[in-house]
Design a protein that fits this description.
By secondary structure, the protein is mainly alpha-helical. It has a domain of 360 residues: Sodium/glucose cotransporter, CATH 1.20.1730.10. It contains 29 helices and no strands. Helix 1 runs parallel beside helix 16 and helix 4 packs across helix 16. The chain is globular, with a radius of gyration of 26 Å.
Length: 662
């Protein structure tokens, strides 16, 4: 065993790293003083709802490709082979379902926060529960995801630990607080390019040193690192086609379907069509990123073989192996190590800035605005910027806490992954099951979180006690941001040993991490439906139109109308909104609450009587919408909860239309 090897950066490497920070800060300053100058909450939090498909797609990819993933994926392939590549099979449905199910629902409701949907579908209690759960998830996550790569970098290169942490944290806070979501998205685009360049440079130079890509493939085949299709259905097996290709779909849905950081990007798109297209564009980009991670792992194996730097004692953990490999390959090429570090911290910046912005949005939209509906626009915008700044400083505090957590750091990663599944289950419960009520939603979420923490923490404690029945099952690090590419971050590479299959509770603790999201979301749905049926399911007329995706109505089209009404299967999805060329920030200036006009935001469409239809045929669209709201509120048959939800949506209308209504 050798001693820990520490390599060092040159001046050129530091210059490249500083240029990354300066460029990122510059983008934030540009958007702080251009366009609407971030004077409204719509511009600051939602980028004016004016973003095109390409930047949104690359921003989605950058949020997905964290620094932890850049370090973890190649180490995973180096240690276990290319079985991990079958994860790409889950990307298809993992992006197709959000594109055609979640995006139409969220976009047509014209929301700012994903959790605003929960109040429209259930009630304010469910919304607050979802919001608080998300805030807890992100606060735990953002400090750790900044500290972990900096710690690995410091261990391998001697790069100043806290200098890197504070530089990244402060620059990220600066451009997020000043430039808003536009700055976050466009810096993500820049950082995505840097990430591609850094990884590509490592693959090209490393493959050349190994004798060419054909030699890399030959050594990988001889070393049994090229995996075939493993169709073993055992859910305890860490990676098989089913765990990666099927279990991965639920992980992708938790990330791309209901996570606020991603939903916010969909809602910032100019049109629903562009939001949908962003999912299609990010699909091939994800495949490229996955292939690059696998190639890096194979190049590492071609150079080191079975004598890994970890086995030789040159590094202390798996997440340091990639950095050691990069410094080893680039040791005679000044500047390229700096390029990879820029690549690494671009991943950190993109992920953390998404966390800041999404946290500021949900805090403002879900916790503050409902209590201060008449807050002036300038004050609301200033408060939103203050929230982004506060969360940035909190990130640095969490990074310090992470530094003293020791082995608990691993559990902090796991806690983030545990929460994604239950939140996915909560949204699926509301969106696909019309008869689910608010009591069932809260109970289901509580049951899902309890199940997630029980299995997750129990598994962690069992491994720490040394009684893990099968080391290669490795559920050490649950997917960060429900990001399956980070599973190898803290994994311990060990040889396969023949041990008996775990039974009872141990079997539950040994469940592959790829099934965690599916298991926990299913718990929420099952418990939520049972409680809803026991406490009185919701009826068709009690539902807010546009909050339920008509999947059951489509599947049960053959049933008579009266049966489909009893199953709440006849409510259609809200129609698409009329496109407008008016700059969003100009429209938002006219609305004290920073919301778009009621022409775009109106989602309540009640059944009108024949006389109503005859009366309104010759009226213009604005008058018909006001009349619709009047019917919804004054109809004596409307339930109190329905009137409350209708009133909630009416608050999103412009002041002039409210005056007309009165």
């Amino acid at each position: 065993m050798g001693e820990m090897v520490q390599m060092h950066f040159t001046v050129v490497d530091y210059v490249i790293f500083v240029l990354l920070l300066v460029a990122s800060a510059g983008i934030g300053l540009f958007y702080a003083f251009s366009g609407g100058r971030q004077r409204t909450t719509q511009e600051f939090l939602m980028a004016d709802r004016s973003m095109s498909c390409l930047p949104v797609s690359l921003s989605l990819l950058a949020t997905f490709q964290s620094a932890v993933a850049i370090l973890g994926a190649p180490s995973e392939v180096y240690a276990f082979g290319t079985q991990y590549w079958f994860l790409g099979c889950s990307y298809f449905f993992g992006l197709l379902i959000p594109a055609h199910v979640f995006i139409p629902v969220f976009y047509r409701l014209r929301l700012s926060s994903a959790y605003e949907y929960l109040e429209l579908r259930f009630n304010k209690t469910v919304r607050i529960c979802g919001t608080v759960t998300f805030i807890f998830q992100m606060v735990i996550y953002m400090g750790v995801v900044l500290y972990a790569p900096a710690l690995a970098l410091n261990a391998v290169t001697g790069f100043d630990l806290w200098g890197a942490v504070f530089a990244m944290g402060l620059v990220c806070t600066l451009y997020t607080a000043l430039g808003g979501l536009k700055a976050v998205i466009w810096t993500d685009v820049f950082q995505t390019v840097v990430m591609f360049a850094g990884q590509l440079a490592v693959i090209v130079v490393g493959a050349n040193q190994a004798g060419g890509i054909s030699e890399v493939w030959k050594k990988a085949v001889n070393g049994s690192r090229i995996a075939g299709l493993d169709l073993n259905p055992d859910p305890l097996q860490r990676h098989t086609f089913w765990t990666l290709g099927v279990g991965g779909v639920f992980l992708m849905l938790a990330l791309y379907g209901v996570n606020q950081a991603q939903v916010q990007r969909y809602l910032s798109s100019r049109t629903e069509k562009e939001a949908v297209m962003s999912c299609y564009v990010v699909f091939p980009c994800q495949q490229i990123v996955l292939c690059m991670g696998c190639l890096m792992g194979l190049v590492m194996f071609a150079l080191y073989g079975e004598n890994s730097p970890l086995d030789q004692g040159y590094v202390q953990s798996n997440d340091q192996m990639v950095l050691y490999f990069v410094m080893d390959v680039f040791q005679n090429l000044p500047g390229l190590p700096g390029l990879f570090v820029a690549c690494l911290f671009s991943g950190a910046l993109s992920t953390i800035s998404s966390a800041f912005n999404s946290l500021a949005t949900v805090t403002m939209e879900d916790l503050i605005k409902p209590h201060f509906p008449n807050m002036a626009e300038t004050k609301a915008t200033l408060l939103s910027k203050g929230l982004a700044l506060a969360y940035g400083l909190l990130c640095l505090a969490m990074a310090y806490i992470a530094s003293i957590m020791g082995s608990v750091l691993q559990a902090a990663f796991s806690i983030f992954g545990m929460v994604g599944g239950p939140l996915l289950g909560l949204f699926c419960l509301g969106m696909f099951f019309p008869w689910a009520n608010s009591i069932g939603a809260v109970t289901g979420l509580a049951a899902g979180l309890a199940m997630a923490f029980w299995v997750g923490i129990g598994s962690f404690v069992m491994r720490m006690s040394g009684s893990t029945p099968e080391p290669l099952l490795n559920t050490t690090a649950l997917p960060l941001f429900d990001n399956m590419t980070t599973a190898a971050l803290t994994s311990v590479v060990s040889t396969t040993t023949s041990k008996p299959r775990p039974t009872g509770v141990e079997a539950l603790y040994s469940l592959s991490y790829m099934w965690y999201s599916a298991h926990n979301s299913a718990t929420v749905v099952v418990v939520g439906l049972l409680v809803s049926l026991l406490t009185g399911p919701m009826k068709e007329k009690e539902l807010t139109p546009g909050t339920v995706f008509p999947v059951l109505g489509t599947l049960l089209f053959f049933l008579p109308q009266r049966y489909r009404e009893k199953l709440c299967c006849i409510t259609p999805l809200a129609p698409k909104h009329k496109e407008t060329n008016t700059p969003s920030y100009q429209m938002a200036k006219k609305d004290n609450n920073g919301a778009a006009y009621c022409k775009e935001d109106m989602v309540i469409e009640e059944k009108e009587t024949e006389s109503d239809k005859a009366q309104t045929e010759d009226e213009d669209m604005d008058t018909r919408m006001v009349h619709t709201k009047l019917v919804a509120v004054t109809d004596p048959k409307s339930s109190p909860e329905h009137v409350l939800r209708t009133t909630f949506v009416m608050r999103r209308c412009s002041t002039s239309e409210e005056a007309a209504f009165r």
